[in-house]
Specification:
Helix content is 41%, strand content 0%.
């Protein structure tokens, strides 16, 4: 995805850390947009037989209440 973006005039949403090296090399840049926010789903993926299932679901529940 980054390669396609670097070699075009396109823009994309991605985490800053994902593009950090390219930004440091001057191949890509960040675009800051004032008063702009995005709401999207957040998914937690974990093994269904995880020993930490209760703790993971509790953590997720706490985040969703915030």
């Amino acid at each position: 995805m980054k390669s396609a973006i670097k070699n075009s005039d396109a823009i994309s949403f991605m985490y800053e850390e994902v593009a950090k090296e390219e930004v440091e090399r001057g191949e890509m840049c960040y675009l800051d947009i004032e008063d702009f926010s995005i709401t999207r789903p957040l998914y937690f993926i974990y093994p269904s037989n995880s020993l930490l299932k209760d703790r993971i679901e509790s953590f997720y529940g706490n985040i969703m209440e915030s």
